[in-house]
Amino acid sequence: MNSTQLEQQDRFARQVTARLAAGTAELPYEVSERLRAARSQALGRRKRVAALHTATAVSGSGAATLTMGNERQSLWNRIASALPILALAAGLIVVYSLENDRRASEVAEVDAALLTDDLPPSAYADPGFIQFLKQSSEE
């Protein structure tokens, strides 16, 4: 339902309510209580119908638009809503590749330091070398 139909229904409901309220003064108490209960039920149903037609905000082409929940989104709105997810995925990929490059350069620096050192690389793997380092650090 669009807004004009809802306005027409509201106008009709007000007219009916006014006519019914005009004649309730002469009704017995039991009948007026049943009418009051029926009005409460009708209002409860009306609130449930209004809740189904809640408004939602949709972002598209740099501007937010307000649409009703039962309207279909256009192709451009769907593409615009997918763009933030794509940007996030691209950002994560870039960060991952930069971190991999940083780690690779750190490993390359360590390897270069080992290879250009005075000791041969096999000395670092020798268990006695660890003991030698411990003794030299104590002295």
Task: Write a compact overview of the structure shown.
With 139 residues, this protein is mostly helical. It has helices spanning 3-23, 29-52, 75-116, 121-125, 127-138; strands at residues 55-60, 63-68.
Care to describe what's here?
With 139 residues, this protein is mainly alpha-helical. It has two domains: 3-53, no CATH class; 73-139. Helices cover 75% and strands 9% of the residues. The chain is built from five helices and two strands; from the N terminus they run H-H-E-E-H-H-H. The chain has helices at 3-23, 29-52, 75-116, 121-125, 127-138; strands at 55-60, 63-68. It has a two-stranded antiparallel ribbon with strand order 1-2. Strand 1 (55-60) and strand 2 form a beta hairpin. The longest helix has 42 residues, at 75-116. The chain is rod-shaped.
Helix-strand blueprint:
Layout: H1 3-23, H2 29-52, E1 55-60, E2 63-68, H3 75-116, H4 121-125, H5 127-138
Antiparallel strand pairs: 1-2
